Amino acid sequence: MAEILGGARRSTLFYPAAASSARFHWRFMKPRANLRVDFPLTPSFSPLGSGKMTLPPGTCKRNPLMLRYVLAALMTTGLFLSPAVGEEKGPRFNGDIRPILADACFSCHGQGKKKGDLRLDQFAGATAAAASGLQAIHPGDPGKSEMLKRVKSPDAKLRMPPASVKKVLTPEQVKTLEAWIAAGAKYENHWSFETVARPTALGNPIDSFINARLQKENLSANPPASPETLIRRVAFTLTGLPPTLPELDQYLNDKAAGAYERMVDRYFGSPRHGEEMARHWLDAARYADTHGLHLDNERQMWAYRDWVIQAFNGNLPFDRFTIEQIAGDLLPNAKESQLLATGFNRCNVTTSEGGSINEEWIFRNAVDRTSTMMEVWLGLTGGCSVCHDHKFDPLTAKDYYSLYAFFHSSAGPALDGNSLLTAPNIKLKGAEYAKKVAAIDVEISALRKKMESAGVGLVYADPASAPPGTLPKETENVWFDDAFPQGSRVFALGQPTNYVDAKKGKVFSGEKALRRDDSGLAQDVCENMPPMTIPSGGKLFAYVFIQPGKEPKALMLQYLKGDWKHRAVWGDYDIIPWGAAGTTERVKMGPLPQAGKWARLEVSSETIGLKSGDQVTGFALTQHGGVVFWDKAGILGNSSPACDPKQSFTAWRKQMLGREVAGLDPELARLLKEGKDSPRLLAYYLAFVSEKSAQEFSVKRKELADLEKSRLAAEAASPGSFIFRDLPSPRQSFVMLRGEYSKPGEKVEPGTPAFLPPMKRNGARATRLDLANWLVDPANPLTSRVIVNRFWQQVFGAGLVKSSGDFGAQGELPSHPELLDYLASSFIEDKWDVRNLLRKMVLSEAFKRHARVTPERLKADPENRLLARGPRLRLDAEQIRDNVLFASGLIDLTMGGRGSMPYQPPNIWEPVGFTGSNTSSYKQDKGGNLYRRSVYVFIKRTAPAPFMANFDAPNREAFCAKRERSNTPLQALQLLNDVQHFEAAKKLAERMLLEGGQTAEQRIRFAFRLALAREPAAIELEIFQEQLARHWKRYQSDPAAAAALLRVGEAKTKAGLDEPLLAAHALLANLLFNLDETITRN
After folding, report:
1. What are 696-738's pLDDT values in tens digits?
2. Are strands 532-533 and 521-527 parallel, antiparallel or unpaired?
3. Distance (Å, whole) CA 900 – CA 53
4. Do 147 and 157 meet the contact criterion of CB atoms below 8 Å apart?
5. Model-level pTM greater than 0.85?
């Protein structure tokens, strides 16, 4: 820092010495003062080295405010960003050398390949002596550096890089390498892997760092943009919509200090803010409304999208935002919203295409989730390490598969079953559901009271009180034969459920059997069936026929009693790793039955942890590979009435007392406490349970069953969403050799890359919650940098690191490294407050500058990386559409819910649709759904909405760090002719006539303010008035053409308006919507 000295004769600011002799002079003029700053410019990012500022004698005493003026001026020009004394000379490894080596050398002499046993990405490897005694790099002596000799060699056989690589070093690059070796060949860790440290800066640090770089490049900054430009820029940045006229007037009329800050804060408080922020995040999360492959059926995931919107609107701290998405299900007493957040891990593309291999898709799903997590939070191209060690970054395949292990044990099926909701999922019990269920509960409660009253006084003889008789007989209770129990929920994991008759397959009993042909783990699952009571000495069974030559690896019977932890396995015991081995969760039954004939799989209920009186509400018929026919399944057991809870009050009461009170009807729980002789408890039993009193209560029981069925139907009709959970017992993970799902190598456990700070674990085995906490650990050098860089990109159009998806060695260096680290460190210190971070950005002078560009500035900084001018970029697809809907008044701002289906050309979905798919044809919405914000538009991955795709919206098949911005003729044609766009022009024309005033000039001014937030210039006003007159004249002579034009779109215009005049204004509005400025965030 500068040292300030004061005295009677003068006051001087001194700066550290530097090597450069180039000097810059700055004169600061104020009344009674003539100040001059004289300092040199250095070649680094810092603007200054040695120098001094001299003030006239007595300045500090005569004018105490002078020091404040001086400091303010220094802050403005970034002079307080000087580094410490002793700045290094010559090329730096990270900035100058690594890019050369990474591009030309690392592919053969890096972490992946080490040809000739030479590594150039590490100091030890590069400087080690070979068997010949030669060193590739001899620090301090270029003449003894074999690498340099090879680079310069005229002999094509010796020259490096070899011709096969098709890389040639330029003379300047060779000189840079030579200078670096001469200076000692000092290596550095890659900049993004270094710990984030907060650099020192005064004033507004963002502007200090940016101005310092501008000063170094000898570029002057633009003045601030106009208030009209600023509010439009802020509105689109923070909400994705233009300002309304009241918002515009409020800001323009606010002359008090802090008007800009107040305007910014109003947009932060808008619910539209969360929608705009979510749009960017959903690109990274690869959110869509369909599975993505083969049938590409609809998947119900929109509740995750709504959670993201709510998270940004509630300014959820980014560390919590991260933890809940990666591991919300592992949080103590996880709330519904935290479970919904884990939908991030379920957004990947899935399939159930015939022939898909279960193990392959377990692998592919885990790879997608791992690679996406790394790209989103770490900015690393982790997918490169699926097959081998990363060629450029210090990420080994073992590192990658250690991260993969966190996602490898997903409880979800490998194949999606083409289902709307694939397990695991959660049902959303919102306000509408609660209201409906509450009404049903009132009816149920009233009916139950009537039934209990009717049960009092009924004569009943308990079979348990009868004298001993003959031994009870064993009888079969069949649960499945030709069909699953009525009213149950049946679904398949793997291929869809397939019934066959005797002509097409094997049938043991009845007319049909199930045929399952799968290459991996597959099930037919029955849930929510009427409770089946386990009898005394129960034996559970199912009949199977294994097709010879296509034997499965394993068969499993699985039962649901509150949970699915009751399993019996025949065949390969370990290939279906569900449940704890050696317990009732997974019992080993022996070898597979003989193929080619029907066999009975049978297991004692007690063997798998089911006691007499327990109630089973589901079962699953499971196999691993092969072709198997399944038929007749159920339970065999003693049929003594004294043991049957439905016939014996004593047996029933014994069963109820063995259950958790929390699982009982509250009224029953109270009655059980009254003892076995309670007449009210007996009345309850007779009214609701006993088969002996079934006739007396048949009508009431049916009414009660119907009400309970209605309650279940209400729950089934409530929407759901995919969530992420782990298997009860984790799968063993391996390094998969060459990235092949069927070639496991070294075993790995969940962990993080060795080159990054270690992860803290809360148990013997690391969990996703440990991973999530590690991602937002302040010691992690990547997450804060990567995330603030993407937010910067969102605000300014390009990240401080342009390659926002790659912070590794192949990525670009930051344009302002100190600024990036300042933002990253302050983001952490501010407790990951996203809104505060964005506020700093939009309040900066850099953001507020005019976007005007001169040829000189364009040549010096074509991409505006240095921000001498304000950010100017074309609106994204969603913003273009929302802008015209908003200006026209058509927009429907309803939040949340299923994706909408607005206009799109015919025959977009149909060519990629399959028979049986629920997205094989497009069904356009009606009414308000046509005009909802674009963040809510339904996204079919195999056929995205054409308007979105034409303007570079991703199809959401994979993580997208940054959208491209193309310019094509098709975009211009779409803006002119798209139904939605022209319908909006028609409705804006209607607003012009109804709200814009009485004259053409007033209406044109009104439209300009709606679309561009400014008044038209004189020349624009003249052109638009001429066009309006010409179009009106035309339509006055051809009213039929005017009427045809106004029929575009489903929105009707107000009756009684002059149609030729309205049509003329519609063409004028369409012209306005097609201006370059309209589709640009200026």
Report:
1. 788 888 888 888 888 877 776 789 999 999 998 899 999 999 9
2. unpaired
3. 64
4. no
5. no
